[in-house]
Specification:
Blueprint: H1 3-11, E1 20-21, E2 27-32, E3 35-36, E4 45-52, E5 55-66, H2 69-72, E6 84-91, E7 106-108, H3 115-125, H4 144-172, H5 177-189, H6 191-203, H7 207-213, H8 217-227, H9 238-254, H10 275-288, H11 292-298, H12 302-308, E8 320-322, E9 325-326, H13 336-357, H14 363-371, H15 380-388, H16 396-410, H17 419-425
Parallel strand pairs: 5-6, 6-7
Antiparallel strand pairs: 1-2, 2-4, 3-4, 4-5, 8-9
Length: about 425
């Protein structure tokens, strides 16, 4: 049994709170369970209130599986535990005393927990076998309203976690949001396979160098392709020669460090996702709309963001997917599905981070209308939940939340921190 199970029983009052008695037979009434201490060291619950034999007590509570854990954890030597007024345990196996040698009252929970709760707990956390997630046999039993509320919280949690990368980039860039937006958009255009390579490219030269090239599309492409190490050593094609000459000029002018080898990958990518195509589209976006960050912050609807992301690869790439190899002519514009990925994984986290940084926490106005209007992502994780509860993900908000649920809760067995797990155990 996990101690976290006892925490959840206590926190949500999911036990028989009537006619409680301590292990010494004293009448006990819980007036306030206390404030759960989930992050700091010290007792598990602060500022609890109890009536013990008619006397009113205010103080802290500590929860253990066994009473002897008090000494196993060396609480007797820690002043932070001097104000513990009640020791809540699953099994009382020894008496615990304060420094002044008075005994700390003890409540043994196993007499007050229902059999159905114990069975639900054991099935969820101790009978995993080959389940995809621990609660898969009962997942569809969770109340729809409660599940929807939990998914919205998970999506916000996902945005908050992505804040760290954004804040790190902001610190490195001396609080230049345009630079942060440029780097994250570059990473987005690289997708999972080449995202890190594109991010390194965007950091390989001072942002001011990129800005100087925004008004000159051929220079911007030369700079980006060159810093990615993608330019051929030799070519008879005019477009490629122009890129080579421009990058040579820029390298000398700005003392750029030219990569020895390219880090980009083509393996198992569809041709439309080749790094050559995505990098050209990225350059076209910034050549046509250099103030991308300020414009995306102002966008309030999906339609406006779609308009912002109108970009296409340079004319050369209409007949090429890689340097020097001709292909059937095709205009290579950003698809709606790609725009959705950029909006979901980059633009909305950027908007959320910027608003949070400015103290403008307006999720309901700036983020929710957009994310809830985007189509849900279809991947291995979302399809797994679809099998358990059909039509669960109706928008990108739910699909992003389900990814957070699977990776940060289900895979880590954090069922007792998950509203689904708590609902099933304490139903």
């Amino acid at each position: 049994m996990q101690e976290a199970f006892l925490h959840s029983l206590w926190k949500y009052k999911k036990l028989n709170m009537n006619q409680l008695k301590t292990t010494r037979g004293e009448d006990l009434q819980i007036l306030h369970t206390g404030l759960h201490n989930e992050t700091e060291s010290g007792p598990d619950f602060f500022k609890a209130e109890i009536h013990l034999e008619g006397q009113h007590w205010v103080g802290n509570l500590e929860i253990h599986l066994r009473s002897s854990d008090w000494y196993a954890h060396h609480h007797e030597t820690d002043p932070a535990y001097d104000n513990v007024i009640l020791h809540v345990v699953w099994e009382d196996d020894m008496s615990i005393f304060r420094k002044n040698e008075t005994e700390i009252p003890c409540l043994e929970l196993k007499s007050y927990v229902s059999k159905s709760q114990l069975e639900a707990y054991h099935e969820l956390l101790e009978n995993k076998s080959d389940k995809w997630i621990n609660c898969e046999t009962h997942f569809d039993e969770v109340d729809d309203f409660k599940l929807a509320y939990w998914l919205e919280r998970l999506y916000v949690e996902r945005l908050q976690e992505k804040n760290q990368l954004i804040l790190n980039l902001l610190k490195v860039s001396n609080n230049n949001w345009d630079e942060v937006g440029f780097k994250l958009m570059a990473k987005a255009f690289g997708l999972n396979v080449n995202g890190e390579a594109f991010l390194q490219m965007s950091s390989a030269a001072d942002f001011k160098v990129f800005q100087k090239c925004f008004q000159n599309p051929i220079q911007l492409e030369a700079l980006c392709f060159g810093l990615c190490g993608m330019l051929p050593a030799e070519s008879e094609e005019r477009y490629v020669n122009n890129l080579q000459n421009e990058f040579k000029f820029l390298s000398q002018k700005f003392q750029l460090n030219v990569p020895v080898t390219s880090q980009v990958k083509y393996f198992r990518l569809r041709p439309d996702n080749f790094p050559s195509i995505r990098l050209s589209q990225f350059c076209n976006l910034y050549a046509e709309k250099p103030q991308v960050f300020s414009r995306l912050i102002q966008c309030k609807t999906k339609k406006e963001l779609y308009g912002l992301l109108e970009a296409k690869a340079t004319g050369y790439w209409e007949t090429h997917y890689s340097f020097g190899r001709k292909s059937k002519a095709k205009m290579k514009k950003l698809s709606l599905s790609f725009k959705d990925l950029v909006i979901i994984n980059t633009i909305l986290p950027l908007k959320f981070a910027f608003n949070s940084y400015k103290g403008q926490l307006d999720f309901e106005d700036s983020i929710y209308p957009i994310i809830s209007s985007l189509r849900p992502e279809m991947n291995r994780l979302t399809k797994g939940f679809e099998r358990l509860k059909p039509k669960l993900a109706t928008s990108a908000l739910e699909s992003q939340a389900l990814i957070q649920l699977k990776t940060q809760y289900c895979d880590m067995n954090r069922c007792l921190k998950c509203q689904v797990g708590l609902e099933l155990i304490h139903a």
